[in-house]
Amino acid sequence: MKKLISMLAVLTLILSVCAFAGAEGTTYQVGILQFVQHPALDEATRGFREALTEKLGDSVVFTEENASGEVPNCATIASQLVAKQVNLIMANATPPLQACTNATGDIPVLGTSVTDYQSALEIELVNDATGINVSGTSDLAPLDRQAEMIRELFPEAKTVGLLYCSGEANSIFQIKKVEEYLAGMGIECKRYAFTDSNDLASVTQTATECDVIYIPTDNTAANNTEAIANIVIPAKVPVVAGEEGICKGCGIATLSISYYDIGRKTGEMAYEILVNGADVSTMPIAYAPQVVKEYNAANAAELGVVIPEDYLPIGE
Amino acid sequence: MNITQLLNQLPGAAAQGLIWGIMAIGVYITFRILDTADLTVDGSFATGGAVAAILITSGVHPLLATAIAFLAGLLAGLITGVLHTGMGIPAILAGILTQLALYSINLRIQGLGTDLGSRANVPLSINKYKNMLVSLRNVGSFSIENPIWLMLLITVVLIGIMYWFFGTEYGCGLRAVGSNQQMARAQGISTGRGKIVGLMISNGLVAFSGALMAQYQGFSDVSMGRGAIVIGLAAVIIGEVIFGKLFRNFALKLLAVSLGAIIYYLVIQVVLWLGLNTDDLKLLTALVVALFLAMPYWKSHMAARRMKGGKPVV
Question: Per CATH, is A143-256+292-313 categorized as 3.40.50.2300?
């Protein structure tokens, strides 16, 4: 008898769950997998949520998970989101994108804060689209214009030190490109790779032998701008950074994209897919809607760098 | 939050637990059998992933790639072993040193064939390499391709091999090295070489597990081994606390380790399902491991209190 009752209980539970799911037909379940707690990634997630919430209001439900920087957590959370049968997954940064892409071949996956989809997914982009259930936004600020910026601000510079974390695929990709552009301008580049925050200070110290230092959108550097500033400012070596956060902490100038903007853009793409039935596999990878030349007023004054008029000061 | 969702998530936890279970068996060999804490594993796990990924992307069959990853793990263990026994560096420090060195080595392995010569992340998309042994993609399906079946098979075969090996004369010698070094040496066993062999087997298994993990999650990353030792230890200890009374046989003890890894992932899956903020996940992990580590200690205290005047066995 006991068994029967418990079986009935389970049955009602399952049925009510099904009924619940049926009644809420217009609710969109959106899973978010963010790689690590980090100001830029947080901004992208915020932009994504705000854009979708503005359009869908209460009919969108978010499941937001953070892998806390541990790679194996990405697979755990990805399989959890797939099991939950969410309608769409937003993968914030490269390892989540890779884990989610492998976890599902059906649920649309939108990446953001990913620099290069081609190397992250090992696919050829056709018309900027992946051809599989993946699309999204890139956090790449045009690297040729960043190289231009170095020459514009520091025409005298002969050597540029490229400072980055050897463990970050995105940084290596950018370093390679910037190096090509600078070499094309006849500027010599030297690579200074650190492995983590522990040897960052000593590697930065070595890099001050160059005339200018360039830092890409490197997560480790972004988390340690104070440490970098304490070395480069006294050494009077200007830093050109790949994103605003790094520039704010230790840089002179940057070509800035806003992570909030690309998050929002990703949210708009999600809306197209969820509501208007757009096909994710033919959606082109989107870039930041606007790029702004920015400078760090305090650091520029400190090092006596003259900033052209078309640069905007970074707000506090 | 509903129960069917949780049920849907269980296969993922089981598959991941089984993969980590192999890694945990490796940890068991050093931690319990050899009685040394080996921290090489954080590095050798990623080495396994790196070797497998770079071979698979260059066209080698995943099965062979995984086997070669095992060999790479043996090498990693050899380095720690030589640092420890040949150069007199304490085991824990030797492991840390190897782990450190492996970070650079793993970057180089992953960078083979690229013009930069070093790479942090190698994608292994199931869309492209359809013959990979295990994949996250199939974990929800009821087909033969579901990684759980293969992982079960691998685990059973592996436990069988370990059971056989540690039952041979040489394997018994290894166990003697761990339980009483002086005695083992008095019996004419080379304890130094024994430790090296133990470390090699352990790291071989860890790299093997890393190779499977890279295929499962669809990429290899230099930082994928971060925190691996904690998961391995957690699995060993959870397995011992829960099944210690039941499982006396050596093969069953290894099985308990594998089950421990599955339970570890089930617990994580359940707390995520309950709505825990993932920001707190590491704190929770540390608490779970500390709790399970403390349990045998508390038990011995309680037992001692029951005997009047008895002192706790520490």
Answer: yes
